[in-house]
Description:
The protein is mostly helical. The chain has two domains: 1-100, Rna Polymerase Sigma Factor, Chain: A (Orthogonal Bundle); 110-193, Arc Repressor Mutant, subunit A. Helix content is 71%, strand content 0%. The chain has helices spanning 8-16, 20-39, 45-72, 79-96, 116-137, 141-152, 157-164, 168-191. Helix 3 (45-72) packs across helix 4. The longest helix is centred in the N-terminal third of the chain and has 28 residues, at 45-72. The relative contact order is 0.11. Mean pLDDT is 81; it is low at 99-115.
Amino acid sequence: MPTEAPSDGDLCRAFLAGDRQAFGVLVGRYQLPVFAVVRRFASTPEEAKDLTQRAFLQAFEAAQRTLPKLIATAGEVPFKAWVLRIAVNLGKNQARDGARWPLAPVETIDETASSRPQALEALEKAEAEALTRKAVERLPPRQREVFSLRIDAGLPFAEVAEVLGISEGNAKSHFHYAVKRLRDEVRALSATPGGEGP
């Protein structure tokens, strides 16, 4: 009979009791959502990997003093919300410190592609992604955070609200306005030569 995977709370308690591997299990469990969130703030995938590592390192360093408080909360231990909050804060700091999205990741296109249509398709896709990234970058900070947690990390609105310390209704409202604004921004950037916008 396969045994049930330990809960976040079980892993947090095991880590506090001295089982360092328990924290590694938590890292493996939430590495992809954290990466997806910080990717919105990083200029390259490598930078996003670095931010992901920094988020877990920060969580590890704070674990001895923070996990007991998380465990003391009623219900399920909110480890996921805690580590995603760390990731969002690191991402915001990264963006504030001057990191910028590339206009178009042309270097990702293989210039030795065997057929021209494939290269053209790859270029169009890269340009569309660059426009979307630029549009996301222009969102107000709270809308950007909500959008990233909802789309990139795949969190339900209740968890988005928990991560950001806002109400669920507030999270839904920010998401609604973020999507509306993104549509307008992408449309405006697409109509401007070079996608620079005003």
